[in-house]
Amino acid sequence: MPLHIDTPLLESLPISRIVHKPVYLKMDALQPSGSFKIRGIGHLCEQLAKMGKTRFVSSSGGNAGLAAAYAGRKLGIKTTVIVPETTPTMMRERIALEGAEVRVFGKVWDDAHQEASRLAQDPKVGYVHPFDNPLIWEGHASLIDEIVKEGIKPGAIAVAVGGGGLLCGILQGLHKHGMKDIPVIACEVKGAATLKASLEAGKLVSLDKVQTIATSLGTKIITPEALNWTQKHRVIDEVVSDSDTVEACLKFADDHRVLVEPACGAALAPLYHNAPILKEFSSLLAIVCGGVGVSLNQLEIWRKQFNKVPA
Question: How far is CA 127 from CA 43, 67, 115, in A?
Fold first, then answer.
């Protein structure tokens, strides 16, 4: 039985009013681990367990690590999560609450990934990569399965992009269901726009540094599979600022009474700003991917930092 749940697909009247067309929200912020990550991570962990792995090791800025910890607890397998220094204390505590061992290594996710890869050399250990594994993409594709069940075919789908795992899953799901004609709007933040850099160079590019408050999107390089998909499906790259993501999170909390982190706000920001790229589509669907690196207090800090929404 999958470790994720089927999540609601809602119509957003507040956002529909802004963009002057129907907007649907796939509410994966309501997953047991707080984000879409449990779809792919859970599927991968179940397969690793069937392969006889007796320990999981994950590297993550937060949400993937929490999903791995949740999966480990549910499957009864000891889990270690390597997080970079940028991972907030609140997130580390939530991962530990799931029963996982939390280790801090390096300044960014790429450093944590190297350490986790080293630990995973043990044949009894299963490495739970946060985004770059075909089983993860297969798990994330279940989002599209659920959208199809609802009978909704949007004009375009907006999705936040960091390492590209969710993007790959969405595209895989669309092709599985014969919906190759639905464009995907890949929403990145300026300080971690790995897909944009790779598209402009015409090849995979690693950023020199990552600088964004959307830490869940903070990777220097995207999975090669995401770049491959851009050759066979229309993927529209849209880059937003940290300020835009915070504004989207605040407005979304008011409109829909759900807290999401800036990484999720990246997919909502073009909608709240009625970005020009949206004009050509008859309807839109945003993946509300969630993220637990947020609280009322943190939203207030971000509000003041970016001078958003008067008190």
Answer: 13, 13, 11
Helix (H), strand (E) counts: the chain: 13, 10
Q: Is residue 109 within 8 Å of residue 60, measured between CB atoms?
A: yes
For the domain that residue 254 is a member of, what is the CATH number?
Answer: 3.40.50.1100
How do residues 213-240 score in pLDDT, each as one tens digit?
Answer: 887 887 888 999 999 999 999 999 999 9
The pair of structure tokens assigned to 306 is 């970016």
CA atoms within 13 A on the CB side of 270: 28
With respect to residue 311, please indicate whether it lies within any of the assigned structural domains: no
Q: Using the 3D structure, point to which of 131, 146, 164 is the last residue of a domain.
A: 131
Residues 205 and 146 in one domain: yes
Q: Are 166 and 287 in contact (CB under 8 A)?
A: yes
Let me know if residue 115 belongs to a domain. Answer: yes
pLDDT tens, position by position, 105-117? 998 888 999 999 9
Closest CA to 220 of 117, 113, 112, 109: 109
Residue where a domain stops, chosen among 102, 131, 160: 131
Full residue range of the structural domain in which residue 262 is found? 9-36+135-306
Q: Tell me how far apart the alpha carbons of residues 244 and 89 are, in angstroms, rounded to a whole number.
A: 24
- Count of CB atoms situated within 10 Å of the CB of 68: 34
Q: What is the mean pLDDT of residues 153-158?
A: 98
| Residue 231: other Cβ atoms inside 10 A | 7
